[in-house]
DNA sequence: TGGAATTTTGCGGGGTACGAATATTTGCGT
DNA sequence: ACGCAAATATTCGTACCCCGCAAAATTCCA
């Protein structure tokens, strides 16, 4: 195998020194890529810098990631994977929407400034907003969402006893959920008078579960949430 | 302005010679990129080849597109734009879901082999399937879907008289729709006993509009759609 | 402990993206 | 019709990126 290859590289698989080091290097590289990008902007970060930051040779960087963008997005993929994992772990008794909501809240909304007492660090969050807007990264972010969708599809299929190969249902749910989470996250980050993540999420999922009913507007006013 | 820049470059804007030539060059480049990629695979296409195919200098290619991937995806973006446009053009009387369904069918399902009498050309369609799977392109494809989502968001907001800045509703609808269309397209392309596009689409939208109800499975079998 | 499996690394080559300067084409006023 | 100004295309040069290859270093396990 060639280091970062797609083999059974899953986060918690092997326990040998080898596997652990590989995972550590991978995380270190991804983390370095993120930090440098937030601080200087993607264009001013060379792969060489990232490698140096993680303490490996430049060539090794490309053994793990095919490019800067992929390295930055690796974190999001990991988070998505954890959400799917959490969904599988929810008790069978929970209705699907409740389980999904809880899974997202459990694994996604952790460590967010409004919810935790972290130091928001204006400089950092501003940089993050810039990073999320980088055109060269958005493709990879969407791609990450695609991976998450795939994992959620499997989890939903399992949970509802549906055959994802035959029915569209699990994939439709997964697509709607990832889409909604994306929307919610953007709103959450951009909200100027900050809004609790959970509130936005429940609102969004509520609309989805209700079939996205068209808000009948009376005369001139839009209805308020 | 520098050729392919983001200015008011919209498909049907200016009518001068300048604007037209620009649009023609752009389409020629995108089309060339697609054709060569389908025939040889993305890795065996140099930007130089694409430029040559379109009859411009290599440097000019990069004045229009930031890379091969973007050039290939340009077509999809255009299609998405047309769907949003069609949605705006649907009569106000149509309920939202119906209007969306019609808009998609009108502008998306055109020229599909099963529906039209085109020559399927096995060689070509096989190449297309390969292209759609190219990892280096998927990011850009997702990005294209993102652009479409944005356009749909505006169209839905207009149509339902909702303020997309305040309410999540239009964006949620747009996200769910683009997600569903993606799922449907994949199924349609992969279906071995071919299935009509319209059938899949109505099924998917039906489930969305119904709130994606969890199919209560009885004992051992999944329910059929 | 010793060899097998795996990973890291340096090197080299083919390409890509883009800034700057220059040439060319188009739009438009007179 | 002419010629100037603006927009666009081209040429050239540079920095960087991605990856194949094969040698060196590390880890595994019997």
From TrEMBL, chains A, B:
Residues 1-26 are annotated as: Disordered. GO terms for molecular function: DNA-binding transcription factor activity; transcription cis-regulatory region binding. Residues 23-83 form the HTH tetR-type domain. PROSITE patterns: HTH_TETR_2. Keywords: DNA-binding, Transcription, Transcription regulation. It holds the Pfam family TetR_C_14. Residues 46-65 bind DNA. This is TetR family transcriptional regulator. It comes from Streptomyces nanshensis.
């Amino acid at each position: 195998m060639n280091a970062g290859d797609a083999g059974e590289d899953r986060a918690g698989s092997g326990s040998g020194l080898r596997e652990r080091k590989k995972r550590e290097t991978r995380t270190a590289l991804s983390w370095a890529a993120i930090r440098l990008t937030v601080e200087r902007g993607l264009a001013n970060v060379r792969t060489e810098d990232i490698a140096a930051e993680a303490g490996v040779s430049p060539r090794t960087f490309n053994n793990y990631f095919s490019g800067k963008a992929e390295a930055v997005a690796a974190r999001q993929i990991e988070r998505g994977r954890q959400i799917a994992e959490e969904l599988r772990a929810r008790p069978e008794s929970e209705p699907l929407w409740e389980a999904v909501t809880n899974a997202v809240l459990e694994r996604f909304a952790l460590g967010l400034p409004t919810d935790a007492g972290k130091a928001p660090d204006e400089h950092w969050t501003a940089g993050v907003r810039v990073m999320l807007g980088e055109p060269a990264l958005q493709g990879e972010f969407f791609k990450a969402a695609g991976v998450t969708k795939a994992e959620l599809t499997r989890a939903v299929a399992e949970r509802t006893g549906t055959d994802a190969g035959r029915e569209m249902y699990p994939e439709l749910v997964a697509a709607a959920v990832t889409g909604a989470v994306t929307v919610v996250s953007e709103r959450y980050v951009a909200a100027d008078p900050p809004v609790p993540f959970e509130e936005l999420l429940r609102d969004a999922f509520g609309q989805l579960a209700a079939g996205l009913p068209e808000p009948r507007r009376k005369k001139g006013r839009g209805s308020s949430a």
